[in-house]
Specification:
Elements lengths: L1 E2 L6 H12 L7 E2 L7 H8 L6 E9 L5 E7 L6 H8 L2 E3 L2 H8 L16 E5 L8 E4 L5 E5 L1 H8 L3 E2 L6
Parallel strand pairs: 3-7, 4-6, 6-9
Antiparallel strand pairs: 1-2, 2-8, 3-4, 3-5, 7-8
């Protein structure tokens, strides 16, 4: 793992600067390997896959707003539950994700978005004291607690995953 430096990609730098401004106690790390999936991130960090706060982006049909669901890496988002909370959803393609969040798929951070998304946090993340989220690039991650995630995003905690 390598700490943040000025030669890192723009999305990573943006998240690092925001976390520093917000006085988050853990600077993001730039991994030597890409962590595009929850399993890749868990393997690189030597943590449980459930400790990975994965970002799943949808498009709300009524207004094309980005809907960000931050869920535990060992769970699957239940689109019906999310739609009941925020309105009908459509899948978001890579171009939509990049345009609305400013990040590429595999590196979508819960903070530092180009356009503020509608955000929901999976209550399953609260099973853990420590979680890891993407830091604006597939190689970037940062450590935080579920409570810190809620404080940083201002997002509500909800049941957004499939049962079982």
């Amino acid at each position: 793992m390598i700490d943040a430096t000025p030669d890192r990609p723009e999305g990573f730098r943006r998240v690092a600067e925001l976390l520093a401004t917000l006085r988050h106690p853990h600077a993001p790390l730039f991994l030597e390997v890409a962590a595009r999936t929850s399993q890749e991130a868990a393997d690189a960090l030597q943590v449980s896959v459930g400790q990975i706060a994965k970002s799943v982006v949808f498009c709300r049909r009524s207004d094309d707003a980005a809907v960000l669901v931050i869920t535990s890496g060992d769970k699957r988002v239940d689109e019906t539950k999310v739609a009941a909370m925020v309105g009908a959803l459509a899948r978001a393609d890579a171009a939509f994700v990049k345009m609305r969040t400013g990040f590429t798929i595999g590196g979508v951070s819960p903070v530092g978005h180009a356009t503020l998304p509608v955000t929901l946090i999976d209550r399953e993340l609260f099973r853990f004291d420590e979680i890891w989220a993407a830091a604006g690039h597939p190689n970037g991650v940062f450590r935080l607690s579920p409570g810190q995630l809620q404080a940083l995003t201002g997002a509500p905690v909800a049941d957004v995953v499939q049962a079982g």
